[in-house]
Design brief:
Distance between the termini: 10 Å
Largest sheet: 8 strands, antiparallel
CATH superfamily of the largest domain: Aminohydrolase, N-terminal nucleophile (Ntn) domain
Number of domains: 3
Shape: globular
Structural class: alpha/beta
Radius of gyration: 25 Å
Oligomer: single chain
Bound molecules: 5-amino-5-deoxy-1-O-phosphono-D-mannitol
Low-confidence stretches: none
Amino acid sequence: MCGIVGYAGPRPLKGVLMGGLRRLEYRGYDSAGIAIERDGELQLVKVTGKIQELENRIAGMDLSGSVGIAHTRWATHGEPNDLNAHPHTGCDDRLALVHNGIIENYHALRTLLLERDHRFTTETDTEVLAHLIEEHLENGKDRTLEDAVRLALQEVDGTFGLVVIDQHHPGKLVVARRGSPLVIGVGENENFVGSDASAFAEYTRDIIYLKDDEIATITSSDYSVRTLQDEARDPVVEEITWELDQIEKGGFDHFMLKEIHEQPQTVEDSMRGRVFPDQCEVKLGGLEDVHDILASAERIIFTACGTSWHACLVARRLFEDFVRIPVEVEYASEFRYSRPVFTPGTVLIAVSQSGETADTLAALRLAKDEGISVFGVVNVVGSTIARETDAGVYLHAGPEIGVASTKAFTSQVTVLSQIALLMGRLKGTLSKKRCEGILHEITRLPEKIRTILNQTDSIIEIASVFSKVNNALYLGRGYNFPVALEGALKLKEISYIHAEGYPAAEMKHGPIALIDDDMPVVVLAPGDQVYQKVISNIEEIRARKGRILVVATEGNETIRELATWVIHIPKTLDCFYPLLAVIPLQLLSYYVAVARDCNVDQPRNLAKSVTVE
Ligand code: M6R
């Protein structure tokens, strides 16, 4: 949520900052701004709309200087407009600041600052930070910018990733973090900061993850990190784990389409070096030290949001089947404010693509504070959730840029399957023979996904019909109920068509009233244990003249008699149908959105990484 980039060094500022913003646009895109410091003077431009609007506004402007900051916004306080866009300034425009997060006590601070004659020009929570820092700079003779920022942050409740520049402290960026990610890029005679490393990956691969309650001072030649309590820190320089071409579209029209097509590879990558069917073994390096905890676990709580939560719903069935212990799946946003009863032997698994989702982070912290073992299933290496969990497994799906999550879901389910298999073997609840069969099948999935991607033409035809409707219902049972939820979420978030996912049999308890010509029904009916039950549900829709798209298993031609449209997926084990059935639903949503001329990668009102609650 909100993208931040900052630079200190000899390269043309405009190019570095705007290039960085473009890479971060997936984090928010309702307004954008840039500020630079040159010879002790600040220059600032901010506009409503996407980064292209800012590009247009600054075309031809000389924005050279020694340091600069830029921001792409996802509004929390104050509508997206030129004034509310970042960077923000105080009363006398001496400093400029970009911020990601929420200042929870901004109202009280604003009232106090108004009493002290500060003048506010925006409706944002962020502006109080600029005034507070300004006040601390002016009240203390010879006070450094970092001291002023530190003192200001002591008055603040809430979350922040922020970067400040000040005309009286030329050539310097001051950066601080609590709850919102920031990464420092270490170069030669130049240094960077970004909400994530994609902002500057073309210039350096050496990075420092700033931790909560740390503050850094960055110039072109140096950087130093301290805590907000003013203790020195010795930051570890790490290396970016992905390649630049992974954050480019690679010939596809959209990141989402590229990421859908990457899935044969990403599913394979998520089990590479981990799955050994002939030895009936699953080796998950990140969990090796906690085998005893997994073996003695008596209950699992999964927590996540959005698509990751859907992956957890699939996992519930997998774990109940293979591990035979009670499993709960909690929305992180609800869980964090509940009073959960943690019985002995409870293990919490937090699942997140970004590893930065504020609610998921808060949920895991709640469990950790209660002494519960907390594990993570995360995509972004070095992210906060990855660092705060006791142990975990990375997805290795590579950067996911499209706001609609696709490849992360399939990698999450693949990794969660592996954890369930590992636990089943550790606990002895899964026989060697059954485990062997499952492991052989999991390795065949990438090829099976590839065959579904080859059916794109027929999916485009179906999408042209769906693009004209206002509502859609998605139904599934058993392992495929979460896929119905995920299919509906994909359709609504990128095409703005109202869609609901339901357990197929629940339809007759209400939603069946909605079925008409304007509400096509997508039914997941692979040849699994509940196939015949789903067929009965299809009949109920047919009896009400509903139009039905059925996702069925290859070889099932009789289904054509019951369906308006059919998409076939290869045969697999019941537990792996979600990994195949979700692929045509991702493609369907994508092509519906394209047909409706929607901005697929940057759907309205959304942002990729939800770092505010
Ligand atoms: O990064 P996370 O997996 O924690 O994100 C969770 C949700 O915000 C995310 O899945 C969201 O629902 C996506 N837009 C779904 O496509």
